[in-house]
Amino acid sequence: MSRNLLIRSNEWKASFFPKVTPAIRAVAEQLFDAPFRGALKRMYLQAKVFELLTLQFDAVLSDVGRELPSVKLKSETVARLHYAREILTNQLENPPSLSELVRQVGLSKRSLQRGFKLLFEKTW
Predict the structure, then answer these.
(1) Closest CA to 82 of 118, 39, 58, 52
(2) CA-CA distances (angstroms) from residue 90 to 32, 37, 95, 96, 116?
(3) Domain covering 69-124, topology
C-alpha cells in the first residue's frame, strides 16, 4: 500500500478519523468482555484487535476517494472539529450548548459552524 494512499498533503488528519460504525463499536465492546481465560483469552483478544484494525482500515480506505473541502483548513482546526463531532456523538442525549462546545474544543463559534459545513457537509 502506498503511503500517499493514506496521507494526502496537509489534509492527512481527515483520513484518520473514520466514523465509528456499529461494527467497530461492537468489536470494541467485545474486547472488554472476553469470554475466555489464559492463553485462549490472549488469542481471542489478538484476533479482536486485528478485526478492529481491519474495520478501521476499511473505513479509512473507503474515505480516500472522498473530495476534501476546497477551502483549506489547518490541520489543528480539522482535529478540533473532529473532537467537537466526537463530543456531540458521545453526548447525543444531552449535547452541550454551542457556547459550551466552542469552549471545550477551543474554536470560535464561526470557525466551528464554518468548519462543520466544510468538513462534514453538515450545519450546526
Answers:
(1) 118
(2) 18, 31, 8, 11, 17
(3) Arc Repressor Mutant, subunit A (1.10.10)
- If one compares 99 and 5, the residue with the highest pLDDT of the two is 99
Whether 60 contacts 6, CB under 8 Å: yes
The single-letter DSSP state of residue 33 is T
Q: Are 18 and 56 in contact (CB under 8 A)?
A: yes
Give Rg (Cα) of the chain.
17
List, for residues 69-95, the tens digit of each pLDDT value: 455 788 888 888 989 988 988 888 888
Evaluate if pTM is beyond 0.85.
no
